[in-house]
Amino acid sequence: MRIVPRVLPVLTVLALAACGSLVFALSAGDLHISFPDVVAGLLGDGDSLPGGVVRELRLPRAVAVFACGGLLAIAGALMQVLLRNPLADPYVLGISGGAAVGALGAMLFGLAPWLVDLAAFAGALGAMLLVFGLAHGDGSWTQTRLLLTGVIVAAGCGAAVTLMLSLATDTRLQSMLFWLMGDASGASRPWPALVLMVVGLVAVLPFARDLNVLARGELSARALGVRVERLRYLLYLVASLLTATAVTLVGSVGFVGLIVPHLVRFAIGNDQRVLLPASMLAGGTLLTVADTAARTVIAPMQLPVGVLTALIGVPVFLFLLSRHPR
User: Fold this and answer.
1) Which of 77, 122, 203, 251 has the smallest set of CB atoms within 10 Å of its CB?
2) CATH topology of domain 4-321
3) Do residues 228 and 285 make contact, with C-beta atoms less than 8 angstroms apart?
């Protein structure tokens, strides 16, 4: 494949950066752990305090934020093709709002953490089905109709979230706000999300050539034999499931799914065969580094990781706009 010599160095650098970010997440903190101790902890050295900290505390969180970043980046790239809108991100269709309604409702009633996760996932799926049903309606489905339906559903979910925050007690309000801004401290079961990230990428890569054609326009895609309706359903379903999983795992983390695909396009172009895996690696790396900074910058206090991604994302997006004014 002719694109391999050009993009292989980029993918190699991203893979090394991903590994480096995970090592950084495992070693940084109040208790600094050297690289040999990190390796020993990963290999099962149960007799030392550093090994226990690595395996039981830092590894689940690092894997969770890496998986969340990868999920959001893949979903953002798919949404931008689906809607043919460079400003589309994983949350644009109200999925994050549905998850927030479910999670905050469970927190409001003081349910167990695993029930909060279950309610968040159920809320995200409910919003996905609602948007799909309303946008599909009489059988027609355009990007504009889907986008507007998602915006309206997101607005309704935002109103419900505001109502629940106003009704919450002071003891529960802080945890609810942290969830809304992204909080990885309670992510203790990250492995299913990591598996889903890989499965989602494998599921869409065979359609990468069709995605390249669809990105040029629906008429061109139909003329070249692409089954546009089937491809749209696939994109919507996969992007929605990836987003729902990411939001359930860490909460609402903004800008990752928006800016990461743009940065990758800036580096290697818009070929979806390379853009999707590169976005996964870049998104996971970005969120892992941001989360590590969020828990170490003002330790022992922790910042919501969504705050740092916003502080990174806003200037990066403004830079991208200045490079491409049209």
Assistant:
1) 203
2) ABC transporter involved in vitamin B12 uptake, BtuC (1.10.3470)
3) no
